[in-house]
Amino acid sequence: MNPIKEVTSVLTPLGRSNVDTDQIIPKQFLKRIERTGFGKYLFYHWRFNDDGSEKADFVLNKPAFKGSEILVARDNFGCGSSREHAPWALGDYGFRVIIAMSFADIFYNNCLKNGILAIKLEEAEIEELLAAGKDKPLEVTVSLEKETIETAEGKVYSFAVDPYRRQMLLNGWDEIALTLQLEDKITEYEQANV
Amino acid sequence: MGKTIIEKIWEKHVVHREEGKPDLLYIDLHLVHEVTSPQAFEGLRLNGRKVRRPDLTFATMDHNVPTRLNEAVVDPISEKQMSTLEKNCLEFEVPLAGMGHPDQGIVHVIGPELGLTQPGKTIVCGDSHTSTHGALGALAFGIGTSEVEHVLSTQTLWQSKPKTMQVQVNGELGHGVTAKDLILAIIAKYGINVGTGHVMEYTGEAIRNLSMEERMTVCNMSIEAGARAGLISPDETTFDYLRGREHVPSGEAYDQLVEEWKQLATDPDAVYDTVIKIEASEIEPFVTWGTNPAMGIGIGATIPRPEDAANESEKAEIEQALDYMGLNGGMSMTDVDIQYVFIGSCTNSRIEDLRSAAAVLKGRKVSAGVNAIVVPGSRTVKAQAEQEGLDQIFLEAGFEWRETGCSMCLAMNSDQVPAGKRCASTSNRNFEGRQGNGSRTHLVSPAMAAAAAVEGRFVDVRSFMKEEVHA
Fold first, then answer.
1. Which residue of chain A is at minimal alpha-carbon distance from B199?
2. The pTM is what?
3. Which residues have a Cβ under 8 Å from the Cβ of B161 and sit 6 or more positions away?
4. Is A20 close to B15, i.e. CB distance below 8 A?
5. What burial letters (b/e) apply to B340-357, b meaning 16+ CB within 10 Å?
6. What pLDDT digit, counting tens, does each position of B331-385 carry?
7. CA B66 – CA B412 distance, rounded (Å)
8. Which of B113, B378, B391, B442 has the smallest number of CB atoms closer than 10 Å to its CB?
9. Is A186 within 8 Å of B192 when comparing Cβ atoms?
């Protein structure tokens, strides 16, 4: 997993609540057996017409937001299916940070395993970022070390990520390798209980 | 102070606890299917790791499988996913109920059916509806593929301790009102993220009176309320259900297990972090009108109008949903025509579900122009239904009688609802495009789906039952 420390990018204002993983990556694209290559299917039915052409009014298709690495949405982002294809698609497309008022639990965990930083902000802060970034692109710097989001004009938003997640993301650690260091404890548990 | 069943199971499974970290939790049962596992097995291979406990792992195929007899898997990519699972199970020595195996079926149907699911176990699967297994008093939750790989390799998971929520269901469900209506009513009342960060325990008289399969329907949809898991403290219903199943011991050994399981129930003086309540007797047969499972109403109610919304963002959500669904605020659900009916999915494809739909369909016909299919939850359910003659009732009514699988719930195979068409579905999600691009899903119980098939529109199934009483 790639470490994530600081990301500077224009933010993409996706002002929706309850964005479910079926929308993030529709089921017809879950059949691949690789972790890569899902980015082109991200938000497929919101992004593309039936003939494959882009829907011009969808935010990801607006030229101002091309190359953006930060997505902003409202409440309960990533609800529904546990499919990790959702963060794979977001990451493969180029998003490294998702900012929302809240996240569904499984999606939130899946982000952590894929080096995507999911940040929770208050409703008023989200509304401010969405409003500021709606008409003209708003560039911000997200620092996981400082736990801040800073706009080009110097406005600073603070966020908190629990220390474990922060360490994992900053270092890009392989969680399985870390757990296997505790193999003796697992064996001990199995001998006593299983 | 007493403990909830959630805390009891959690504490018993902590392998390692350290300040500033989630708990390392032991996993008793890991269920695997073809869609969320290939990348996990590939990860093991790349790192030279093995499956730590194949004996605590069990795989089946359900998401992608065709449901027409002798249909070759049309899609070569689906086929590849299925053959990859076969190869992985062989290489890593994981037991597999694959195509053609008598135990094959929807992973959340076969777990309880085989007795793999048991009270007090921690159970995971790369599927959000793993919460189903909580019906038997297990702590069961869905995980992503990286976590699947972690469990395969270590038989553990790092998990932060959940908050506990009591969902208190008081009173009795009325005649003709089912477990599906109950869970849809709970989600409609409290919203699709009321459970975020929590494990829900369903309690109360109405829950105690549910059969084991009805409890599975309730727990199955805990995730649609945003909960990490949902469960019910085990009782005699649970113990009777499990007795004699393939993966539970028999005789005295079973009785001994039951004594242990009895200790799991939440203590009377336990305190939950959150409590929500609902009155069972007030619930009507339910239908969803919108694009998430909380957008549902009783069959006698009218579809909400955007102008009645509490705030601007709710108004926008209602407008978006009505637009997608091709409906208007203020309409009555009984004026909504349907073209498709799907009876199946991990929510409602068990034998009692099929019996309940068949009871409505007996001696009746599917309305002209309605495509109706039944997809049993497992090969075992299918065989049982055929033994009872339910397949004949469905076929005579004009339903298609299919092979088992997830089918039209998520429409990964060829079972799809075309764009703009409306489906009365016993599944669990009515998200945009869930049953096919542009499809319109209305979640209902099996009896309500059967009644809708007969009328070609939504109808209060209780009116069918009244006719029978008078006859």
1. A105
2. 0.96
3. B10, B22, B23
4. no
5. bbbbbbbbbbbbbbbbbb
6. 999 999 999 999 999 999 999 999 999 999 999 999 999 999 999 999 999 999 9
7. 9
8. B391
9. no
Size of the A and B interface in Cβ pairs below 8 Å:
161
Chain B residues within an 8 Å CB radius of A162: 160
φ/ψ of A57, rounded to 5, equals -85, -5
What pLDDT digit, counting tens, does each position of B253-284 carry?
999 999 999 999 999 999 999 999 999 999 99
Phi, psi of A71 (to 5 degrees): -110, 135
Q: How many CA atoms lie within 13 A of A79 on its CB side?
A: 34
Indicate which of A29, A90, A161, A179 best probes the interface with B, i.e. most B CBs within 10 Å of its own CB.
Answer: A179
CA distance, residue A15 to nearest chain B CA (Å): 10
Q: Which residues of B368-384 are buried (b: 16+ CB within 10 A; e: fewer)?
A: eebbbbbbbbbbbbbeb
Contact: A109, B42; criterion CB under 8 Å: no
Q: Sheet holding A156-158: strands in order across?
A: A117-120, A97-100, A70-72, A6-13, A139-143, A148-151, A156-158
- Asked if A179 and B156 come within 8 Å (Cβ–Cβ), the reply is yes
Cα A35 to Cα B40: distance, rounded to the nearest angstrom: 9
Percent of chain B with pLDDT over 90: 94
Q: Which residue of A has its CA nearest to B162?
A: A105
CA B470 to CA B130: how far, in whole Å?
Answer: 42
Number of H helices, E strands in chain B: 16, 19
How many whole angstroms separate alpha carbon B59 and alpha carbon B96?
A: 5
Residues A125 and A157: beta-carbon distance below 8 Å: yes
How far apart are alpha carbons B3 and B272 in whole angstroms? 9
ipTM for the complex shown: 0.94
Instruction: Tell me the CB-side half-sphere exposure of residue B471, using CA atoms within 13 A.
Output: 6
* CB atoms closer than 10 angstroms to residue A56: 8
